[in-house]
Amino acid sequence: MIKVFLIVSSSGKIRIRRFYDEVEFARQQQIEQKLIVLTSKLSPNSCNFFKDLDGIYDKKCKIVMRFFGTLYFIAVIDEDESELGVLDLIQNIVDLMDKIFDNACELDVLYHPDKMNALIDEIIVAGIVVETNIMDIQEALKQQETQIKNK
Amino acid sequence: MFHLSQMDQIFLKSLADVVRTSRTTSQYDKLTFTTQTIADIKNELQSRQESVRYQALLKLFFLAMEGNNIRWAEFQIINLMGSGDFQLKLGAQLAAHLVIDNQSQGLIMVTNVFIKEFKSSHIECSSTLSCLGTIANKDLSDSLLSHVLKLTTNTKPLIRKKAIAVLSKIFTINPLNIPGNLEMVIQQLQKETNISVLACGISLFCSIMKVAPKLYPLFLSIVYDQISKQKSNWLLIKLVRISNKLISLEPRFQGKLIEHYTRLLNQTNSKSLQYELIYSIMRHFKNHSQLYESAGDILKQFLNHQDPNLRCLGLECLTHISTSVGLMEFQEQILESFKKSDYFSKLQILQLFKDFTNQNNFQTVIEFFLKYSDMESNDKIIESLIFIITKDKFINVDDPEKLLLVYIPIIAQKIDSIDNAIRFKELLFELLTRVPGLKVYSDQLCNQILQTYATQSDSLQGPTLNIVKRHTQLKYSLNHREIIFKSLIMIVGESVKLLKLEALTNIIKFLEQLNILNCYESSLSDIDSLLFKIYIQIIKSDPENQIIPQMEQLIKNIYTKLHNISIVKISFFYESLIQIKSRDQLQQLYNLFEEDLPPINLEAQKLIKPPEGLDINKSFQIDISEIEKIKNTNSDYIEQKQLIQQQQQIEQNQGEQQDQNSEIQIKVENEEELKPLNNKIDQNANKIFIINRDEELPPGINQDDINKFKEEE
């Protein structure tokens, strides 16, 4: 299960925030701050996942991080989720963003929070990855757009 | 789609406007800007224009990402969820997780809204299920359970998979909902062909195993069924993961999986599936040598792989080789990979060695990590090394002498954080308590560590007091250098009786350096008490007064440099001088204490009234002539006392000499008898330091003594 999913800019601003377990607002901010600090340790040759030894969320969980352009994609996962699977998932999200926004960048995430959240809701529901096929997800999003236009 | 009227376009601030204004607003005006924006949004959310309300919703997203609490908008968002317009409804459902939590009162209103949406088109139903998955609480789950269960039989796989995902949340929140309902879901999954739906089903089983593990027999067959026929890597990964948990609950399941694991291991090229398989095999299939060996070969490939992620996963697998003998095979590879690993992989390797270091590889491990520590991971390396040394009461340490004289000084030099300095201090104290014989080396240790502090110019720069923010208060905290300095001073102070004169004089000469006294201002009282202990020891061990004058001069130099001399310490100092030294020697130090004592500060009298008849403005000292009279009578008394003491000592010495002479005679007689036996004993036996691992026993007390005492009782 995915416990937390964040998209953070390289300047430390949160662009997308999803907590899939019940966490208090104050604690959410604490967790976000500590995860943002960890992004500074990520380098092109470093490993993309590591154990949450400091107990930022939970010592039994792992933190998966990936950097694309100016955005950090951060996921906190428990022992039921595959680390390489989540890395693939992040790659899929980025590919979908490219298809929806035509060469996506940070500003697209900033100015279209509704589309970004809709995209993530098609992939992760209640912390569980429900779909990884890009075509199926795109199809579902297109159907939503059609429904909106046909109002 | 929303089209804004011309008037709206003029006055309405879009999300882009708000973002632009936020970026150009200074920090001081941020609060005003945020307050104004929130006021605008509150107005806009009540507008009749759907376009205006939608813009307000988008701005709410932005405010939430900026860190503002937007829970005040809960009612408005719930209201929007019941809107007739799909875009507005969808937007509200996507924003729901930002405003609604477990305790929200408004969730009751959502129930009917959701029930209505579940009966609508599959697109609306799908977005509603996603929203429910985020905001569900106990009451909402109980009221909507039956509706969600119906949706698991929907014709669209999109609805079925989301319904199963939501069910996992419902069952986790309230496990009482599981019995009766789970069987229905399993029956449907047995007929299911869509991979996404099956994957959600496996995730559902994983969630159930956390809250009700005893229900595992219900889904054992479906998991086995899918492993034997499934070809999708994504689903197989989930199946292998859940199989790990099932094997630990039902060991017989392991036998059934051997054939399928062997097939999958040979066929698959997917690294993620390979990793899951070798992880499972390393953990549960140690008795099956062929499978274990093939997994071991793939594990070696992972450890040598160029991709740091795969190397990291390989290290993860190694944590499940339970014996350190098994780890020794891979030790060289792991240490080699440490040199080129990133920060996170290094942490993982350190964790591995924390668990698996033993006496055999202790030296190799310590020397390697001390050699290859870098700035980024230094802190964690030192923490891990201290853990390895102190683990299970120094169980890994077979040569405490080498540890103290070789490794500990190097570790001390590399420490650069307060937490590690405190751990280092505790390590030193524990080691010297458990091996009291090592105290003889305390001066050597002190010199080795403190000499580097004295010569490294950067370690003597800057204050050793840090201002640290604890919660909202600023507090002073010693930095790592001072913590180590204080602990070394204390250890030397405790070991003063065991040290030679030369060692003690070297310590005093070291402390006399002005830069040391200026740098470690917070430790001046510790230096003070150490000097006192050293001085007393020197007096006892130098009866011929050869070194004492030189030492006194050094100590006097230090005291003149120290700014805060404690009066109590000086009085003790003076008392011991009177007892031990002659009058001439006392005269030399008279000048130190020549000054008048200062009068009582008037401020001190505010709360306590002085006794009646006492004039606080009068000086303490009465008449100098009076003092001289008292002195003379005292000095006569002191002289007489000394004469008496000298006579007593002479008599004592005579008595002792007689005893010694008789002893020597007896010894000579015995030695002639013991000569043939003594020749067999090795006169130059090596020193052996044994670590006392008894729990909470002070040194010098044996467990045997305690047992004897208990038996007697």
From TrEMBL, chain A:
<protein>
    <recommendedName>
        <fullName>AP complex subunit sigma</fullName>
    </recommendedName>
</protein>
<keyword id="KW-0472">Membrane</keyword>
<dbReference type="GO" id="GO:0015031">
    <property type="term" value="P:protein transport"/>
</dbReference>
<keyword id="KW-0653">Protein transport</keyword>
<dbReference type="GO" id="GO:0012505">
    <property type="term" value="C:endomembrane system"/>
</dbReference>
<dbReference type="Pfam" id="PF01217">
    <property type="entry name" value="Clat_adaptor_s"/>
</dbReference>
<dbReference type="InterPro" id="IPR016635">
    <property type="entry name" value="AP_complex_ssu"/>
</dbReference>
<comment type="similarity">
    <text>Belongs to the adaptor complexes small subunit family.</text>
</comment>
<dbReference type="InterPro" id="IPR022775">
    <property type="entry name" value="AP_mu_sigma_su"/>
</dbReference>
<feature type="domain" description="AP complex mu/sigma subunit">
    <location>
        <begin position="1"/>
        <end position="145"/>
    </location>
</feature>
<keyword id="KW-0813">Transport</keyword>
From TrEMBL, chain B:
<dbReference type="Pfam" id="PF01602">
    <property type="entry name" value="Adaptin_N"/>
</dbReference>
<dbReference type="GO" id="GO:0030123">
    <property type="term" value="C:AP-3 adaptor complex"/>
</dbReference>
<feature type="domain" description="Clathrin/coatomer adaptor adaptin-like N-terminal">
    <location>
        <begin position="35"/>
        <end position="515"/>
    </location>
</feature>
<dbReference type="GO" id="GO:0006896">
    <property type="term" value="P:Golgi to vacuole transport"/>
</dbReference>
<keyword id="KW-0677">Repeat</keyword>
<keyword id="KW-0813">Transport</keyword>
<dbReference type="InterPro" id="IPR017105">
    <property type="entry name" value="AP3_complex_dsu"/>
</dbReference>
<dbReference type="InterPro" id="IPR002553">
    <property type="entry name" value="Clathrin/coatomer_adapt-like_N"/>
</dbReference>
<comment type="similarity">
    <text>Belongs to the adaptor complexes large subunit family.</text>
</comment>
<dbReference type="GO" id="GO:0006623">
    <property type="term" value="P:protein targeting to vacuole"/>
</dbReference>
<feature type="region of interest" description="Disordered">
    <location>
        <begin position="694"/>
        <end position="713"/>
    </location>
</feature>
<dbReference type="GO" id="GO:0010008">
    <property type="term" value="C:endosome membrane"/>
</dbReference>
<keyword id="KW-0472">Membrane</keyword>
<keyword id="KW-0653">Protein transport</keyword>
<protein>
    <recommendedName>
        <fullName>Clathrin/coatomer adaptor adaptin-like N-terminal domain-containing protein</fullName>
    </recommendedName>
</protein>
